[in-house]
Design a protein that fits this description.
228 residues, mainly alpha
Amino acid sequence: MKKFGGSSAIAALLSFNGGFVDTAGFLGLAGLFTAHVTGNFVTLGAALLLGSHGIIGKILALPVFVVSIAMARFAGAALRKRHAPVLRIFLTVEVALLFLFFALAVTFGPFPNADSPAALLTGFAAIAAMALQNAVQRVHLANLPPTTLMTGSTTQATIDAVDLISGADPEHAAAIRVRFVRLSLSILYFAAGCASAATLYWLVGFWCLGVAVMVGATAALMRAETAP
């Protein structure tokens, strides 16, 4: 495992922000999941049944997410041809999107109607930021656990724990142990982000998003131990 301060540190900060932004968005935007799309299918069904606000945002979350990732993919290919530091640039763009989310949220929020144009624009800024983070993790931090999706990580960590407890093959035990530690830390950082966002949102509302901007900026300023 690489020393803390390179790609592992960046992944830790991104995992924290994944939980933080997803929780803040869920609380302030009528149950909108900004970091992944699966939850929006569930909450969309509930919103349709109950007739609550946020239906439009949940319907548009998937296309906004997909378009954001597609744009990142095209931009990444163009930047690589110019030998530009793609990871650093993408992390900086994510900070800009998080700041846009923060600025829109504190300016126009709270949102009694999550389907209002201001609320939708605010949510789309957050979705674009988290879509870019997902793309960054897949392409540039693929050797590390996901920073936004904890279902697969929790499943694999549980399997690894059982294998280690039951006595894994010594030939593979070391690799399993390393993976288990990485997954467990990723889940812990994400959970810490969720808890922090919930607490701070209760205390200061959307102003809590300043923390996400600062965490994202810290990640962008770090020198990644991966190829650009």
